[in-house]
């Protein structure tokens, strides 16, 4: 007995897709109803349903339509296996990339909670990884009025030119690096929590003194630094190198200035 076939609305309902999608596939020539009956209606046959199943599977794997059209022209078992293997390789790579992003997000959540909960505290922290510092703008002075938008532009241009890591927005922080000679000069820098060969300098793993303070705190850099130095002297510790000041919680995380937290840090001599 000859099968009646399926009208476009019936097929769309059974596969939970729109009739517009089926018409689009028809227009592209990758799925055209095989039968036309006396009433001029066009019907999808068993073969069409099988073809649609293959199309939807390939679309689920994000295969472009032009590749699907070429594949469906004339394919055998080996072609199917080759197609599936290539998609598997791509999906495995995407999974690894998503895992990296997920881990970065989890780390960011942990860091942000820690910064918020410990604002106002001076503590010793431990870094287990090499950190990288990319200099964005050199030899600025704390007495100068800084054009924030110009600094942001320098930062974004460095990212666009590949001078800092491609995923800069999840792998580190913008901050400043103050000279250790008390001159008041500093560099605007991108401070990354990973080891990148192209960085201006690398900071080895180790301990450092951290002073977390609210971003709306009115005290000057020197006042905050001197407070940290007094704490270091009281604890009988020895430090070296520049002072880093990082914007850990800023307007990227909250529009409320009272939520902002900065960190001043200097590394301990082991």
> How many helices in DSSP terms?
8
CATH homologous superfamily classification of the largest domain? Regulatory factor, effector binding domain
CATH architecture of the largest domain: Alpha-Beta Barrel
What is the H/E string?
Answer: HHEEHHHEEHHEEEEHEE
Main β-sheet: number of strands, strand sense, barrel status?
A: 8 strands, antiparallel
Specify the overall morphology. Answer: elongated
Strand content: 15-25%
CATH topology of the largest domain: Multidrug-efflux Transporter 1 Regulator Bmrr, Chain A
Strand neighbour order, sheet with most strands: 3-8-10-9-5-6-4-7
* CATH hierarchy, class of the largest domain: Alpha Beta
Structural class: alpha+beta
Distance between the termini: 87 Å
Question: Would you give an account of this structure?
Answer:
This protein has two domains: 8-75, Multidrug-efflux Transporter Regulator, Chain: A, Domain 2, CATH 1.10.1660.10; 118-268, Regulatory factor, effector binding domain (Multidrug-efflux Transporter 1 Regulator Bmrr, Chain A, Alpha-Beta Barrel). The chain is 42% helix and 25% strand. It has helices spanning 8-15, 19-28, 46-60, 65-73, 77-117, 148-160, 168-171, 221-234; strands spanning 35-36, 42-43, 122-127, 131-141, 172-178, 185-192, 201-203, 206-214, 239-249, 261-268. Strands 3-8-10-9-5-6-4-7 form an eight-stranded antiparallel beta sheet. A two-stranded antiparallel sheet has the order 1-2. Helix 1 packs across helix 2 (19-28). The protein is elongated. The relative contact order is 0.11.
